[in-house]
Amino acid sequence: MTLTVGAATSDGTAAVAEAVHAAAAACTPLRLVGRGTWLDAGRPVRAITSLSLAPLAGIVDYTPGDLTLTAGAGTTLAEIARVTRAERQWLALDPFGSPEGTLGATVATTSAGPLAHAFGTPRDNVLGLEFVTGTGAVVHAGGRVVKNVAGFDLTRLLVGSWGTLGAITEVTVRLRARPEVDATIVLPAPAAPTSLGALLDQLRAAPVAALAAELLNAPLAVQLGVADGPALLVRLAGNADLVRAEQAALAALGDAAAAPVDVWDRLRACEPAGAAVARFSGPPARMAATWTHALEVAERWPGTAAHASVGRGVARCVLPTGDARALASALQPTFAGTRIFERLPNELWATLAPTAVADRLSRGVKRAYDPHGLLNPGILG
């Protein structure tokens, strides 16, 4: 069963609060849903009833001079891009998946793409938000301006909480000015860790301020149409003279070539439905080692698309569906850094990632905001 609410107004928020109150009275767990495009992400949710936040759509406030925008949680990223493009501005969040995904889902899951290299994750771009707790209380955190009064940062607490602390109904974000020139260069990426490490060291030392720098394994590079083997994508932006100088600096590092203008859109859409996604991270200085581990996983599971954000030290493996037991075996080997699963077959969560919130502090925060355990139960373990 799916419950729906009204538009992105105070009435819409009130409807969410009323729905949560009713669920609490009936002891009915709720699955919070935006556009429903990412429902296979995170652990399985133990709730039959869904509360749709998609109707909470629309721009509530947009102040181009302040580079800030407030929108309902159900507003799609595509709609925000359309509205801000007219002012030569943009929201520098490019999570993997469709641009039809919502702002609320992006913030709740703190989903980030290659642009996090330069602009950070949603926690760095969200200025404030409104949410409804598991008791039906409406809470406002942060504000609608870049500078806010210091205090307990509820905004950062809610960002990335996967809807387990509250139903996000409205979000205020920081925007950026669109650059005059936006170009991407492709460099061949050596497979040997030592050679790759040397290339990445040269890239860090080069006079280049990239918006994104993403490694691709050979299958993904071919799929995106940028190279026949492993490749490094470097996104440059600025005025024409600056970009020209940075292109020359990159040309000194290897056989540089121009990438298709839509390569980043293709990369965002590279995950097929039902795929398993594993993320590996470590210090950026050890990116070569993290990338080597990702390539080893890809070799154990044919058809895997692997890519890595160089500046953040994060590698992702997108593994096509297959036998669950064999998939678990491919993902089992230990990794010296941090391993997080974004998507898995339901039966593998208990084996590979039983819980993310076993600590006392996390359980205490959950009880404070959702004492009845109504909101997205099970999604964090």
SS element count, helices? 14
Q: What's the number of extended β-strand segments?
A: 18
Globular, elongated, flat, extended or rod-shaped: what is the shape?
globular
Strand order of the largest sheet: 14-11-13-12-16-17-15-18
> Strand-residue fraction?
15-25%
Major sheet size, sense and barrel closure: 8 strands, antiparallel
Unreliable residue runs? none
Q: Please identify the top-level CATH class of the largest domain.
A: Alpha Beta
Query: Separation of termini?
Result: 23 Å
In which range does the helix fraction lie? 25-40%
**Spatial extent as radius of gyration:** 21 Å
Domains (count):
2
Based on the coordinates given, report the CATH architecture of the largest domain: 2-Layer Sandwich
Derived from helix and strand composition plus strand pairing, the structural class reads alpha+beta
Mean pLDDT: 92
CATH fold type of the largest domain? Uridine Diphospho-n-acetylenolpyruvylglucosamine Reductase, domain 3
